[in-house]
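Is this the right way to post structure tokens for a design question? Let me know if I should format differently. Anyway, here goes:
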């Protein structure tokens, strides 16, 4: 790895790690879920957290190519955008929870969902542009390792954030919730400062406009969707994501009687295992992907997803909870490192940001529908039947992925990569 790549790895890893800490300290799937539960929210409303997470992150990406149009100034545009949207959401959420006695449970529940959607839209609008920019900053020969190390640091601080959040919740109960959001606000500010230290090679290159018009955008989308391997990847990944729609209800399950009735603080603290497994898997899958390609990493992630569904069904205990989180961490790492690199490498044309955008957008629709349906099914039939159905879908997703998806590196390197100067 060259000296500029090492500098960028340090700055980018710091930003990703601090982001992980901020989102885990005020985790939507742990802290927000517990707050909504205490406010009297039902399974359908709690299940909507995942739908917001997926939808607000994926759907607004259509706006990104029209807002971030300069390759040379793209880093500065991204830093300014994140600085406006992300910290404010956590700061305001803390005040909403702090004022809960005056506002009432209903106002607090809907306000927190709105602010969560605001944060995710703030990250979702530039999401395709952001991931394309990371692909531009690191050359393909070291990209898996760079992303794996960055996400490894992310997972380690996620573990620290979850453990700290669980400790505070266990000791202070609901009084800790506002402080968790305010701590997350401070970590967001630090993360964006670290991101500003990344040196973008495009800043010293000739200005290239990334502006696209609607006809060109449609043409590039058609080119992406005409590729059979890309379509097979989208099909298998959509099934896998739909099969794990149970994830937001894991906390609810393990604190319920059928899930072992574990204390809330223990369930949150055990989430550290997920972050630890994710840290190890990020590094391992990144190195594996650079050497062998990223298809194997995706298959490992879907297999771990199957394990995360089997464990709570067979072992509704602390041990089962720990195994579930370990498998969940591996699944998450696969989605970060392996899935993103497959998206980069399946691009058949010169507009990778469009390819990433349409891939993320298509993957979001079944994910959002499954997340919304999961809450409804859980409310009607219970959590264990839902997990059993998700298990069947996940097994089908793994079989389709292994049978239909080919390793992208067997094909011609995309134009975007071929034109990138060596570091």
């Amino acid at each position: 790895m060259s000296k500029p790549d090492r500098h960028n790895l340090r700055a980018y890893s710091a930003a990703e790690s601090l982001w992980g800490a901020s989102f885990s300290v005020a985790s939507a799937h742990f802290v927000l879920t517990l707050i909504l539960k205490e406010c009297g929210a039902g399974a359908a409303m709690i299940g909507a957290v995942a739908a917001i997470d997926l939808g607000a992150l994926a759907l607004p990406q259509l706006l990104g190519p029209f807002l971030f149009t300069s390759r040379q100034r793209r880093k500065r545009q991204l830093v300014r955008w994140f600085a406006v949207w992300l910290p404010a959401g956590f700061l305001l959420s803390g005040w909403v929870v702090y004022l809960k006695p005056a506002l009432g449970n209903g106002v607090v529940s809907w306000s927190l969902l709105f602010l969560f959607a605001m944060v995710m839209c703030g990250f979702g609008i530039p999401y395709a542009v952001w991931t394309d920019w990371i692909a531009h900053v690191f050359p393909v020969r070291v990209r898996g390792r760079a992303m794996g190390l960055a996400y490894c640091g992310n997972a380690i601080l996620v573990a620290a954030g979850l453990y700290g959040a669980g400790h505070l919740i266990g000791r202070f109960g609901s009084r800790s919730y506002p402080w968790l959001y305010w701590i997350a606000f401070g970590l967001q500010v630090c993360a964006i400062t670290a991101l500003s230290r990344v040196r973008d090679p495009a800043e010293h290159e000739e200005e290239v406009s990334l502006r696209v018009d609607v006809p060109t955008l449609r043409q590039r989308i058609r080119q992406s969707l005409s590729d059979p391997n890309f379509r097979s990847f989208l099909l298998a990944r959509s099934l896998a994501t739909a099969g794990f729609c149970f994830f937001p209800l894991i906390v609810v399950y393990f604190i319920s009687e059928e899930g072992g009735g574990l204390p809330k603080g223990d369930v949150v603290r055990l989430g550290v295992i997920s972050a630890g497994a994710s840290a190890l898997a990020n590094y391992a899958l990144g190195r594996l992907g650079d050497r062998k390609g990223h298809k194997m990493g995706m298959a490992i992630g879907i297999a771990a997803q199957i394990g995360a569904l089997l464990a709570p069904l067979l072992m509704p205990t602390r041990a089962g909870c720990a195994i579930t989180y370990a498998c969940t961490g591996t699944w998450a790492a696969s989605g970060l490192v392996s899935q993103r690199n497959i998206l980069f490498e399946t691009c058949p044309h010169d507009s990778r940001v469009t390819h990433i955008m349409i891939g993320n957008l298509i993957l979001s629709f079944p994910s959002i529908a499954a997340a919304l349906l999961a809450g409804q099914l859980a409310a009607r039939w219970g959590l264990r039947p839902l997990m059993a159905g998700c298990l069947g879908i996940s097994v089908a997703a793994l079989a389709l992925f292994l049978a239909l998806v080919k390793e992208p590196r067997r094909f011609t390197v995309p134009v975007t990569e071929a034109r990138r100067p060596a570091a």
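Format looks fine. Someone answered above. Worth noting: The radius of gyration is 21 Å. Residues 412-423 have pLDDT under 50 and may be disordered.
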